[in-house]
């Protein structure tokens, strides 16, 4: 604490705030009491003076109290303003009129417009279209933030929406709604995301006519609106300097506008761990500060005046590049560094980093939960601590590149656990990509691109001339990233590690590097001594003393080797356990993933085999003339829901994918699955449908050498001793014809199979219709010689509970104990059909629905079935 008091204080504050954010109620107080009782123990063993412990304990407690205080105030007052209790559901969906100020950049994507709004008044709308609340009650929610989601009605309304700016006062009419929560285990939680932005409600509106501009005055949002206009103007110049997709790339690189980069280009960077290049951070700040300082010194500006210019440049740069947590951190650290450098007080980077962290967390405690904040501070701290330990390992490299290599390797190690936690993937080529591309981009692309921008502001042709070589360099950069991403076998998928695993990883790697660097330094010192010094001969009587010294050195060397081996084994064991999937071996798992209106089931056998049944799919009824409504990155359930969940659960490959039939809501999401995961085999119903989705899916399977099998009644699949798939439908009528038939109506051709897993039976039905049900029942009875009905533990209800299936005859034959209906919460088909639900209830089946229960997960072990639901 004497050497780094701010660092110790920041650590205690973060631990206190983090503990309060993770736990609440009695659990939090028990943990606080445990930490409090541990502090006197440190004093008792004289490890730390009691005054120091007392100060750190107070900071730790203040951090926890400050979080509790702020989180307790983060509640909505809108129900009070609307005459309703917070628990009354009528507020959700109520028609409201609101007035307020736009406080975020207005994002337009296709026909969708979104922005955040600070309310000044809000009221319910009655049947006559006027508000009903008194002015005092409306102002109860004044200052509260809401997110506005507006859907444009016509293409002409795009021009109106493009004129909306942050800082404008508006009047708005729409419906009030709660943000959705995660409906899948481990899925993205929009409710928590908005809660951390202090937003509790959405206002949804249709048409630009729902928004009316109102007279307003200058405020902070207005100032940021000017910054938005400035950024847009700078982005326009970049767009004129660089063609096509390069404009989006350079906007992200220079001013942090990465949302305009083409999706495939962004995914190339993501796959190789290069997205930090597009997030304005310390390296960007350092390069720009270095360029400005060097230019000023070349113009014979004094060092003191040059530092003063740099100091005032930094807040302007932070604003222009988007005001994200990473760039705020870099700006604060740089400003503190410049100030301390002028005063001759800059001695420890960790204290400067700690000061920046404390300032940001006191200003906004929810920064602690921000991914950008966590990555920025963790990586920067890791570089300060790890780079000095790694430099000795690269002593064989030339001195000019030794530090750069150590920084790159250290950054990869430090960011590794957080990359796994948030993104669940890591490319083994990430280090190679960062070593090869980051120096080129940092030393050439970014500085020259910035120079082209500045000169282009003065005279556009000159900027284009400067940008000309960068265009070729950008093309070469993405050729390299495309080639590296195209190499198979280097992408690994990891489950999200626990906080304990992350801390153990950092501790183990640090101690291992520390012990290793000490050994390297001693070896280097001994080598230099042997080369430069003359060792005197020892007298004969000193022989015994030297032998004893050698024995102690030998024991000490073996002790150090033992420590390094133990630490290495610990790190390897951590990596091994972290790479294991969430679904444990020895237990069977059947997981009905909520993909809205569609089917997607992940089956994991007791031996660890993974079989995916369907993949959901986004259904669009949009006409070609409405292409303007298409979003830059449209929501696709396979890429946005199924693939992230498979990664988060540590699924490394799929042993089989069963495509029950060719309808979009069952196979649309499989395209993303086949593109990103190794798939060993694809099972289908033996027919195709004339759709672009199925054609592309089959082409991808052939390109990736995935074995394609046509399944039919009588076939079985036995992935392990405790699991058997028995296919009941379709019939093998087309076998031997040599042709794959095209059948438009695929529901009747759905793959139907019975799964027997460790003493529990499941029946999967796709979208089969009643005719198929009758055929199966007739054949099953024929095989049994007209025997009694079967008994199934779990039935996946066909066609999302449609009235065209799940007949009384079908239910009477199978007698399911439990029925799962995979159905969208807001589907327009009326699924599940009330009569189907009644038949299931009459049969005594326990009904689970993904629209009500969210994801349904089942564990199977020794004939026992355990069920849990995502939504209570």
UniProtKB/TrEMBL annotation:
Cell membrane recorded as keyword: yes
InterPro entries, sorted: ComA-like_MBL, ComEC_N, Competence_ComEC/Rec2, Competence_DNA_uptake, DUF4131, Metallo-B-lactamas, RibonucZ/Hydroxyglut_hydro
Keyword Transmembrane helix: yes
A Pfam entry, by short name: Lactamase_B
Main subcellular localisation: membrane
Subcellular location: Cell membrane
Cellular component GO terms, alphabetical: plasma membrane
Residue stretches in coiled coil: none
Bilayer topology: Multi-pass membrane protein
Keyword field: Cell membrane, Membrane, Transmembrane, Transmembrane helix
Transmembrane regions: 53-69, 306-328, 349-369, 375-396, 403-423, 429-460, 472-493, 499-516, 561-579
CDD domains named in the record: ComA-like_MBL-fold (cd07731)
Matches recorded under NCBIfam families: ComEC_N-term, ComEC_Rec2
Listed PANTHER family: DNA INTERNALIZATION/COMPETENCE PROTEIN COMEC/REC2 (PTHR30619), RECOMBINATION PROTEIN 2 (PTHR30619:SF1)
Name by which UniProt lists this protein: DNA internalization-related competence protein ComEC/Rec2
């Amino acid at each position: 604490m004497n050497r780094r008091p701010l660092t110790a204080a920041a650590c205690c504050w973060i631990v206190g705030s983090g503990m309060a954010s993770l736990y609440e109620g009695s659990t939090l107080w028990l943990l606080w009491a445990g930490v409090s009782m541990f502090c006197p123990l440190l004093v008792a063993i004289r490890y730390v003076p009691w005054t120091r412990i007392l100060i750190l304990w107070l900071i730790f407690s203040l951090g926890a109290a400050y979080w509790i205080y702020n989180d307790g105030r983060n509640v909505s007052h809108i129900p009070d303003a609307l005459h309703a209790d917070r628990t009354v559901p009528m507020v959700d969906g109520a028609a409201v009129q609101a007035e307020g100020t736009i406080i975020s950049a207005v994002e337009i994507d296709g026909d969708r417009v979104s922005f955040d709004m600070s309310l000044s008044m809000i009221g319910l709308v009655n049947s006559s279209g006027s508000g009903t609340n008194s002015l005092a009650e409306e102002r109860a929610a004044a200052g509260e933030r809401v997110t506005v989601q507006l859907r444009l009605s016509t293409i002409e309304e795009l021009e109106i929406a493009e004129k909306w700016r942050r800082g404008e006062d508006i009047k708005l009419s729409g419906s009030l709604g709660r943000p959705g929560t995660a409906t899948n285990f481990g899925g993205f939680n929009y409710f928590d995301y908005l809660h951390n932005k202090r937003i509790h409600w959405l206002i949804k509106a249709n048409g630009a006519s729902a928004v009316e501009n109102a007279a307003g005055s200058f405020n902070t949002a207005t100032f940021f609106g000017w910054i938005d206009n400035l950024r847009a103007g700078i982005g326009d110049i970049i767009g004129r300097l660089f063609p096509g997709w390069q404009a989006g790339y350079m906007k992200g690189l220079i001013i942090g506008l990465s949302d305009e980069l083409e999706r495939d280009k962004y995914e190339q960077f993501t796959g190789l761990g290069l997205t930090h290049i597009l997030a304005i951070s310390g390296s960007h700040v350092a390069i720009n500060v270095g360029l400005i300082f060097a230019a000023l010194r070349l113009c014979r500006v004094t060092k003191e005046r040059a530092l003063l210019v740099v100091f005032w440049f930094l807040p302007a740069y932070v604003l222009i590049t988007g005001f994200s947590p990473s760039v705020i951190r870099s700006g604060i650290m740089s400003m503190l560094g410049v100030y301390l450098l002028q005063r001759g007080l800059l001695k420890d980077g960790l204290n400067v980093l700690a000061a920046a962290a404390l300032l940001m967390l006191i200003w906004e405690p929810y920064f602690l939960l921000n991914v950008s904040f966590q990555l920025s501070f963790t990586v920067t701290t890791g570089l300060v601590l790890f780079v000095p330990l790694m430099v000795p390992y690269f002593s064989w490299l030339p001195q000019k590149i030794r530090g750069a290599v150590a920084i790159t390797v250290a950054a990869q190690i430090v960011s590794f656990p957080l990359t796994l936690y948030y993104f669940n993937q890591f490319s083994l080529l990430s280090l190679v990509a960062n070593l090869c591309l980051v120096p080129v981009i940092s030393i050439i692309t970014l500085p020259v691109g910035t120079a082209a921008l500045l000169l282009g502001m003065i005279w556009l042709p000159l900027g284009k001339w400067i940008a000309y070589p960068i265009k070729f360099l950008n093309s070469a950069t993405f050729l390299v990233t495309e080639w590296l991403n195209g190499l198979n076998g280097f992408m690994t998928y990891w489950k999200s590690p626990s906080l304990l695993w992350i801390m153990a990883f950092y501790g183990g790697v640090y101690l291992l590097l520390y012990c290793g660097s000490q050994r390297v330094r001693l070896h280097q010192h001994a080598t230099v001594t042997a080369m430069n010094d003359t060792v005197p001969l020892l007298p004969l009587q000193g022989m015994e003393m030297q032998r004893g010294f050698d024995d102690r050195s030998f024991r000490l060397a073996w002790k150090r080797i033992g420590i390094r081996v133990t630490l290495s084994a610990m790190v390897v064991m951590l990596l091994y356990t972290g790479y294991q999937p969430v679904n444990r071996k020895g237990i069977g798992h059947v997981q009905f993933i909520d993909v809205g209106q569609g089917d997607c089931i992940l089956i994991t056998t007791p031996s660890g085999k993974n079989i995916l049944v369907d993949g959901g799919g986004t259904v669009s009824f949009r006409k070609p003339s409405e292409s303007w409504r298409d979003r830059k990155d449209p929501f696709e359930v396979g890429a946005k829901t199924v693939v992230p969940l498979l990664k988060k659960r540590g699924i490394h490959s799929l042993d089989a994918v069963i495509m029950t039939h060719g309808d979009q809501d069952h196979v649309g999401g499989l395209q993303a699955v086949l593109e990103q995961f190794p798939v060993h085999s694809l099972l289908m119903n033996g027919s195709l449908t004339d759709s672009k989705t199925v054609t592309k899916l089959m082409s991808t399977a052939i390109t990736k050498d995935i074995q394609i099998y046509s399944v039919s009644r009588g076939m079985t699949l036995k992935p392990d001793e405790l699991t058997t798939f028995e296919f009941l439908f379709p019939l093998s009528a087309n076998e031997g014809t040599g042709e794959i038939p095209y059948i438009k109506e695929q529901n009747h051709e759905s793959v139907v199979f019975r799964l027997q897993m460790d003493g529990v039976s499941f029946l999967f039905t796709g979208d089969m219709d009643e005719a198929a049900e009758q055929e199966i029942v007739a054949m099953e009875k024929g095989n049994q010689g007209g025997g009694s009905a079967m008994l199934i533990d779990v039935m996946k209800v066909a066609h999302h509970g449609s009235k065209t299936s799940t007949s009384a005859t079908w239910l009477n034959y199978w007698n399911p104990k439990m029925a799962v209906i995979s159905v969208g919460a807001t589907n327009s088909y009326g699924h599940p059909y009330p009569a189907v639900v009644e038949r299931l209830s009459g049969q005594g089946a326990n009904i689970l629905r993904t629209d009500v229960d969210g994801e349904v997960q089942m564990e199977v072990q020794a004939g026992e079935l355990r069920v849990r639901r995502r939504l209570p």
